[in-house]
Write a structure and sequence with these properties.
By secondary structure, the protein is an alpha/beta fold. 54% of the residues lie in helices and 14% in strands.
Length: 269
């Protein structure tokens, strides 16, 4: 019996498949998912029989971002400044496990990839998307500051600002490839086959070589201040959650649900 209930971890001939498995919630990231995700990545880091990891979502979406249930938002709203900062630091640490994993991670993105899921995928090594997938930040702005540093080294400052300011307008998979956020786009019915083929090619390279290549490239990127910029973004996100605008937005989600709150925000604009 699997020790996981919100993810699936499969291992087969040098390839692991880490599958977000809450399809009824569009694989939204709960605190339990974060914990299981951490444990699975620690398992994969220690397993020298695995050379490459495919990260994907079950059902009709890759991931809808952080869980936005009223219960989750009430819990977040009641956190103190220090507690919320620790929460954000823990979330970032989970995503950085992907960056630090001593083997390549390939993201297979279809359907929706929203909010925190964008941050997660931005730290993978290769991103393959369906042509019609929708990548975006939630229209209902609950906080600000965290997401930009994830986009910046991939798409540049102008596109980062465009995507940050024009929230809720999805970037299609084909555009994600064009601007540099993703590597390749395929029709949805070909996506899994193409990702598996890429993973098999990567797995032919000895793990020692793969691990060294990834470490060298990441180290060079970190010399630009990349890791520090992610931490700074989280600090800004933490600060803005104390503002009336953020508190009011969170309360509206709690009272009305995310869909109605997003509709209100759109009509108000």
């Amino acid at each position: 019996m699997s020790k996981y209930s919100t993810i699936i971890l499969e291992k087969d001939n040098k390839i692991a498949r880490l599958i977000l498995n809450r399809p009824e919630k569009l694989n939204a990231l709960s605190m339990q998912t974060f914990g299981e995700f951490k444990d699975a990545l620690e398992d994969l880091a220690a397993d020298d029989s695995i050379s490459v990891v495919i990260l994907k979502g079950a059902g009709r979406a890759f991931c809808a971002g952080l869980e936005l249930s009223p219960e989750a938002r009430i819990e977040h709203q009641n956190l103190s400044y220090v507690q919320d900062r620790l929460r954000l630091q823990h979330n970032l640490a989970r995503f950085l496990q992907i960056w630090d994993l001593p083997k390549p991670v390939i993201a297979q993105v279809h359907g929706y990839c929203i909010g925190a899921a964008v941050e997660m995928v931005s730290l993978t090594d290769i991103t393959i998307v369906s042509e019609d997938c929708q990548i975006s930040w939630p229209r209902m702005l609950l906080a600000a500051g965290a997401e930009g540093p994830f986009w910046l080294p991939l798409v540049g400052i102008k596109k980062t600002k465009e995507y940050s300011f024009l929230r809720g307008i999805p970037v299609l998979g084909t555009e994600a490839v064009r601007v540099g956020w993703a590597n390749r786009a395929y029709p949805l019915d070909q996506l899994e086959k193409e990702v598996e083929a890429i993973a098999k090619e990567v797995a032919k390279i000895p793990l020692e070589m793969l691990s060294t290549e990834k470490a060298a490239i990441n180290r060079a990127q970190e010399l630009t201040g990349f890791r520090q910029s992610l931490a700074i973004g989280m600090e800004y996100d933490n600060m803005v959650r104390l503002t009336p605008a953020s508190r009011n937005a969170i309360q509206r989600v709690i009272d009305e649900g995310h869909k109605e709150a997003a509709k209100w925000r759109k009509e108000r604009a």
